[in-house]
């Protein structure tokens, strides 16, 4: 049991992301048709809640690293799970759009306290080797939430209505609370991180175990930080806008409620496969190669979906989901490997500030474009263009810790050669 405990932490992180992301950002969109029918709001009005949610989460993200250092991931996870249960119970009583916006203020706190940054730091603390595979398993959670939460909601709605369904869904985060209470802890005597004392990168050829961590200020001065930020901004706009509007879009194209839920299941199901598969491949080869491959897949999927052909939609969802799943995992790994763990909380928080802002704006502006044009054609073309820009930015990522090591230990003439090697 002690030997396998780090992998148990991966499973807990996976469940945490499945419930927090699935219930606040992706799965909740299964309620959208019911809310629009009940209250007659425009899509722009309804989707403003998601922008509000993500912008507030973005504003809070830079403080996540300090919170983790001060109170730890366990306390944050416990707080987020209880808050989510309370907010879902409150959602069952809404009677105006203002009530919805206020609830999504609370969702922002859930995203920060039980979301990506906390999960990545939680898992990274428990793994000195096999970190790519570990993060791939943990980050499967966001896809699992996108797959299962809409299916559960669609199954509940016919018999219970949307108000009672919100109350029934509140049971899930309460279960998460007790799982975190029992299992989440830091490494200590008797429970050691996986691979402690071994090479930090699984002995991949050419990787030095003594590479120095970069400080937050040093990271901000690198091109890799800004390249990763641009990839995050463009791809998060794309996937969050697509997933937030997919059920409504598929119903516009003539698909049934069940088929629309199946579309979400397919998108995030392939994302789940991509997270594990590409996380494993990142341990077998260089994360950079896998990273670029993921963005290329996303770009291809976005172009297919932008064609607005019902017969091609399923293929676009397969390619987009597979690329996104891998990118979601490898992006976090690239941050940790490029800059180290010392300032990982602050770096993740800053990039989360950018990508959450982009995602929130994307969700809302996609709805605004629909209200203006009467369809999603222009909005999905914008998504495709942005992912292509992200694909180009991914080519600029390099191993900044290797460069810092080379600068400190090699003559000036050799640093350029080291920089060239680090690019691939």
Q: Could you explain the architecture of this structure?
A:
The protein is mostly helical. Helices cover 80% and strands 0% of the residues. It has helices at residues 5-26, 32-39, 43-60, 64-91, 97-113, 116-125, 131-169, 171-183, 216-220, 223-252, 257-284, 287-306, 310-339, 344-373, 377-394, 400-409, 412-423. The radius of gyration is 21 Å and the shape is globular.
Short description:
This protein is mainly α and 424 residues long.
Portion in strands? under 5%
Uncertain runs: 199-209, 418-424
Radius of gyration: 21 Å
Give the N-terminus to C-terminus distance in angstroms.
38 Å
Count the strands? 0
Major sheet size, sense and barrel closure: none
Topology as a string of helices (H) and strands (E): HHHHHHHHHHHHHHHHH
Structural class: mainly alpha
Count up the helices. Answer: 17
| Range of helix content | over 70%
Q: What general form does the structure show?
A: globular
Average pLDDT: 85
Provide the fold topology.
Layout: H1 5-26, H2 32-39, H3 43-60, H4 64-91, H5 97-113, H6 116-125, H7 131-169, H8 171-183, H9 216-220, H10 223-252, H11 257-284, H12 287-306, H13 310-339, H14 344-373, H15 377-394, H16 400-409, H17 412-423
Helix pairs in contact: 1-4, 1-6, 1-7, 1-8, 3-5, 3-14, 4-5, 4-6, 4-7, 4-8, 4-14, 6-7, 7-11, 7-13, 10-11, 10-13, 10-14, 10-15, 11-12, 11-13, 12-13, 12-15, 14-15, 16-17
């Amino acid at each position: 049991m002690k030997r396998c405990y780090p992998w148990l932490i991966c499973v807990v992180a996976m469940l945490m992301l499945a419930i927090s992301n699935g219930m606040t950002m992706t799965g909740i969109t299964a309620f959208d048709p019911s809310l629009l029918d009940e209250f007659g709001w425009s899509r722009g009005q309804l989707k403003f809640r998601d922008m509000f949610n993500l912008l507030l989460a973005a504003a809070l993200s830079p403080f996540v690293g300090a919170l983790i250092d001060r109170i730890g991931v366990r306390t944050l996870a416990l707080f987020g799970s209880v808050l989510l249960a309370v907010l879902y119970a409150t959602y069952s009583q809404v009677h105006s759009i203002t009530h919805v916006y206020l609830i999504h203020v609370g969702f922002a706190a859930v995203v920060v306290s039980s979301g990506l940054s906390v999960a990545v730091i939680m898992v990274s603390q428990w793994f000195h080797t096999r970190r790519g595979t570990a993060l791939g398993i943990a980050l499967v959670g966001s896809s699992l939430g996108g797959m299962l939460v809409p299916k559960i909601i669609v199954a509940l709605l016919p018999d219970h209505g949307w108000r009672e369904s919100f109350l029934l869904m509140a049971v899930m985060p309460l279960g998460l609370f007790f799982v975190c209470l029992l299992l989440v802890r830091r490494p200590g005597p008797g429970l050691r991180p996986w691979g402690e004392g071994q090479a930090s990168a699984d002995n991949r050829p050419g990787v030095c175990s003594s590479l120095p961590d970069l400080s937050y200020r040093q990271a901000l001065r690198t091109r890799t930080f800004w390249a990763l930020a641009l990839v995050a901004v463009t791809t998060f706009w794309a996937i969050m806008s697509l997933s937030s509007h997919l059920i409504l879009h598929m119903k516009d194209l003539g698909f049934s409620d069940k088929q629309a839920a199946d579309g979400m299941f397919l998108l995030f199901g392939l994302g789940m496969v991509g997270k594990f598969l590409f996380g494993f491949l990142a341990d077998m080869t260089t994360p950079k190669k896998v990273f670029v491959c993921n963005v290329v897949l996303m770009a291809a999927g976005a172009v297919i979906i932008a064609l607005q052909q019902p017969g091609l939609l399923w293929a676009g969802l397969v390619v987009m989901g597979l690329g996104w799943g891998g990118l979601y995992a490898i992006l976090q790994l690239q941050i940790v490997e490029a800059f180290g763990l010392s300032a990982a909380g602050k770096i993740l928080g800053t990039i989360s500030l950018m990508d959450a802002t982009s995602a929130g704006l994307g969700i809302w502006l996609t709805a605004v474009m629909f209200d203006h044009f009467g369809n999603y054609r222009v909005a999905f073309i914008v998504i495709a263009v942005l992912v292509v820009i992200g694909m180009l930015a991914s080519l600029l990522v390099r191993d900044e810790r290797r460069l810092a090591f080379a600068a400190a230990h090699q003559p000036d003439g050799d640093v350029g050669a080291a920089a060239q090697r680090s690019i691939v």
